[in-house]
Amino acid sequence: xxxxxxxxxxxxxxxxxxxxxxxxxxxGPGRTETFHxxxxxxxxxxxxxxxxxxxxxxxxxxxxxxxxxxxxxxNVRDVTAQGMxxxxxxxxxxxxxxxxxxxxxxxxxxxxxxxxx
Length: 117
What we know:
By secondary structure, the protein is α+β, with helices and mostly antiparallel strands. It has one domain: Beta Barrel (Thrombin, subunit H). It is built from one helix and seven strands; from the N terminus they run βββββββα. It has one helix at 93-116, and strands spanning 16-17, 23-28, 31-40, 44-48, 58-65, 68-79, 83-91. It has a six-stranded antiparallel beta barrel with strand order 2-3-4-7-6-5.
């Protein structure tokens, strides 16, 4: 399994935790599966799973956001005991705009939940 992300190295895009998060259909080497998304950023998603695709694999994905389905390709960037991290490789301009709006909305809601705590 891959190494854990280096905590000293800042992320390019901040992650937003999702509870509950959307399901993501992923087609990779030899199979297609649906996984629960536990965090998202403008750069990728983390998917909870017991049997991740191999680190380095290029996969196609479909992420349902409201009435829109974001589709693209991603690289399996990190594999941990909790699941796998996908880094987006290609998204359409429209899908990137939908993703940006969704991440902003989720970040705002997460901030509201922290303020209420």
